[in-house]
């Protein structure tokens, strides 16, 4: 059994199941460490659930938001909402109590669902980047190429690929293919729920779940940025010919700053959250699983936190979406106030 110490835990040896001779070791965090972490994780869960739930309700409620782009945003919000609602709470308990008490079958289901939802979230982001490419770079062809039907096909591909990756890999035990003896002799224990992977499994799953969608996003957003700069220069040249140089210089600078800021936020948040985990996920089997499991667990949490930021970036970041939410909210408040005034005057 691999033995390592957790930062902030007691050094006394404990076990998840004292009566079992194959129990996993339990590392008990001190109260000063556990309480702040529970508060931090609970806050992340609430933000993930309610932020994405608001996006889901808004897109489902407003018919004006029933567009191909928003169907992709809706699919993203559903994946992130489910991550916050059904994956993050058990993850929180497992990470802080360092034991799993829900059984082996539920552990497999939990890990499969976690891989599925994380993959769906990332692949949805890549499809949104494709949608944005046509909207920005080929606006005249956008409505004919990105229809509701095309958006639904993208959503179907995304979820089918994600379910196949998550449930296929774990329930068929492809994650330990080729290292079964090592896993059952050195890693497997009662009270643990760790997604352990061979190099082939980690490489293939990481490529499908992160590297391919990530490179698609980087390539597309780079192209969008270059085209935006080219369009800004074209506007600048047109303004020079028409004598409106100063005003158009200001517009060009503003346009370039806005596009740079938007793409920097989109790619910066995504890469900052997920890159450390997927790099370590591939490196760990190469260095004979030398990375501490608590480090991989912490990096997985950082990746999952991307689901907290997604509704802010891909929904509330757009002014038309915010206006629709705010207008609906304030109209409801005004209607309620008018109703109360009428009731009061009648009585």
TrEMBL record:
Residues 51-314 form the G-protein coupled receptors family 1 profile domain. PROSITE patterns: G_PROTEIN_RECEP_F1_1, G_PROTEIN_RECEP_F1_2. The keyword S-adenosyl-L-methionine does not apply. Belongs to the G-protein coupled receptor 1 family. It comes from the Eukaryota. This is Trace amine-associated receptor 1-like. One of its GO terms (cellular component) is plasma membrane. One of its GO terms (molecular function) is trace-amine receptor activity. It is a multi-pass membrane protein. It is found in: Cell membrane. It comes from Scleropages formosus (Asian bonytongue). The lineage of its organism: Eukaryota, Metazoa, Chordata, Craniata, Vertebrata. Pfam families: 7tm_1. Signal peptide: none annotated. The chain crosses the membrane at residues 37-59, 71-89, 109-128, 149-179, 199-221, 263-287, 299-321.
């Amino acid at each position: 059994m691999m033995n390592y110490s957790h930062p902030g835990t007691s050094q006394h040896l404990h076990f998840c199941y004292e009566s079992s001779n194959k129990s996993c070791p339990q590392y008990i965090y001190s109260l000063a460490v556990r309480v702040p972490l529970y508060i931090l994780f609970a806050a992340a869960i609430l933000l993930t659930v309610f932020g994405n739930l608001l996006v889901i309700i808004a897109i489902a409620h407003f018919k004006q938001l029933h567009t191909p782009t928003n169907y992709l945003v809706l699919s993203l919000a559903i994946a992130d909402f489910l991550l916050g609602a059904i994956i993050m709470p058990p993850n929180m308990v497992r990470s802080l109590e360092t034991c799993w008490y829900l059984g082996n079958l539920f552990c497999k289901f939990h890990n499969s669902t976690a891989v599925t939802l994380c993959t769906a979230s990332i692949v949805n982001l890549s499809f949104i980047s494709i949608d944005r490419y046509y909207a920005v770079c080929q606006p005249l062809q956008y409505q004919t190429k990105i229809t509701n039907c095309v958006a639904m096909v993208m959503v179907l591909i995304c979820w089918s690929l994600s379910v196949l990756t998550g449930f296929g890999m774990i329930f068929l035990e492809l994650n330990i293919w080729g290292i079964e003896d090592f896993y059952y002799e050195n890693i497997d224990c009662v009270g643990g729920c760790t997604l352990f992977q061979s190099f082939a499994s980690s490489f293939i799953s990481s490529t499908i779940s992160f590297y391919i969608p990530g490179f698609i996003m980087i390539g597309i957003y780079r192209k969008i940025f270059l085209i935006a700069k080219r369009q800004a220069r074209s506007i600048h040249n047109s303004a020079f010919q028409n004598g409106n140089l100063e005003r158009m210089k200001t517009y060009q600078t503003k346009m370039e700053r806005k596009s740079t800021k938007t793409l920097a936020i989109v790619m910066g948040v995504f890469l900052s959250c997920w890159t450390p985990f997927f790099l370590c996920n591939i490196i760990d089997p190469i260095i004979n699983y030398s990375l501490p499991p608590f480090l991989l667990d912490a990096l997985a949490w950082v990746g999952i936190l991307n689901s907290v930021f997604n509704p802010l970036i891909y929904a509330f970041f757009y002014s038309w979406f915010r206006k629709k939410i705010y207008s609906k909210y304030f109209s409801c408040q005004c209607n309620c106030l008018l109703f109360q005034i009428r009731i009061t005057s009648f009585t």
